[in-house]
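Z., the sequence and structure:
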Amino acid sequence: MNIKEIQDLIKFVAKSGVNEVEIEQKDFKIVIKSDDKKGSAEKQILVQAAAPMAQAAPVAAQIAAPAPEAPSAPVVAEENSNYITVKSPMIGTFYRSSSPDKPPFVAVGDTIKEGDAICIIEAMKLFNEIEAEVSGKIVKVLVDDSSPVQYDQPLYLVDPS
């Protein structure tokens, strides 16, 4: 059973008003219990995978119905594993330069050191200058200028060597 099928099952159980559903197949077990106290629509899900030699630990999660989809983060390829990812310290709008007519703080190939300004993130009309926490060479800019960024979203790849 894949994650899409599990999400569809959770949505179906939430709409049907059933208090408990249990599905057991040879390699896993899913239990969905409704906690309808005080009009709450929370579901408790227990997924237990069966292992041939060892007993698997149960994984429990609280999910509000309908199940929200998790935002997908960009995945950095294995070839970039020796690079350091500089991430956004806040939610806001990413700017590569201090104004549209000025050059970007950093570009691909530039060498930065700890404390150098690398970008600006605007949050609630405040322009926050973001400083480098590592030294190295900018390998890749992962965000377009003037685009929204989330907390902990990768902004740059830096080669520390």
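The mean pLDDT is 75. Helices lie at 3-16.

Let me know what you think.
H.
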